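Key result, reporting period 2: structure in, sequence out.
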């Protein structure tokens, strides 16, 4: 839409940021089959969509590199957005690198992920894939547990009282 010369534009009008108060999700509403984890290597960003994709979201900072994704209308948490996943989150919480096992990967191959996991976890990571296959009942269940472990670790370091436990 073009600005018409007769339109009045107030050059002094200031932008007023919206205050967002994230609301906790209901744990029982999470369907493990709908959880989507994605990782983009170029931006080093990991996204966790607890209720699948397709929700309009706003990322609200809650800790140094951690954001909660909330719906604009209800401000309910529907996911997590981690900036600097490898550089910051994994550096501070090495076990978080397990989330890449369940992520849709962009700009990084599964072989590169395994190499990073080996560098990050050392000897501890060598038996993980085989052990996971033997012990876990489903990929969905383990993905949910990996996300819950990450959130619990973050909750213990930051004031994340608004974020409920997943498991």
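The corresponding designed sequence is given below.
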């Amino acid at each position: 839409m073009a600005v018409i010369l007769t339109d009045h534009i107030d050059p002094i009008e200031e932008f007023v940021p919206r205050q967002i108060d994230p609301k906790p999700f209901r744990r029982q509403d999470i369907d493990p089959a709908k959880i989507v984890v994605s990782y983009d290597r170029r931006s080093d960003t990991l996204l966790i969509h607890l209720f699948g994709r397709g929700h309009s979201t706003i990322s609200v900072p809650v800790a140094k590199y951690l954001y909660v994704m909330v719906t604009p209308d209800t401000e309910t948490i529907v996911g997590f957005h981690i900036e600097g996943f490898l550089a910051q989150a994994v550096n501070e919480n090495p076990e978080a690198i397990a989330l890449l096992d369940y992520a849709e990967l962009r700009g990084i191959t599964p072989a590169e992920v395994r190499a990073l996991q080996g560098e990050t976890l050392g000897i501890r990571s060598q038996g993980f894939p085989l052990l996971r296959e033997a012990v876990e009942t489903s990929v969905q269940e383990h993905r949910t547990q990996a996300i819950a472990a990450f959130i619990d670790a973050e909750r213990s370091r930051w004031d994340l009282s608004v974020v409920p436990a997943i498991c």
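The CA atoms of residues 26 and 164 lie 8 Å apart. The mean pLDDT is 81. This case is discussed further under Risks and Mitigation.
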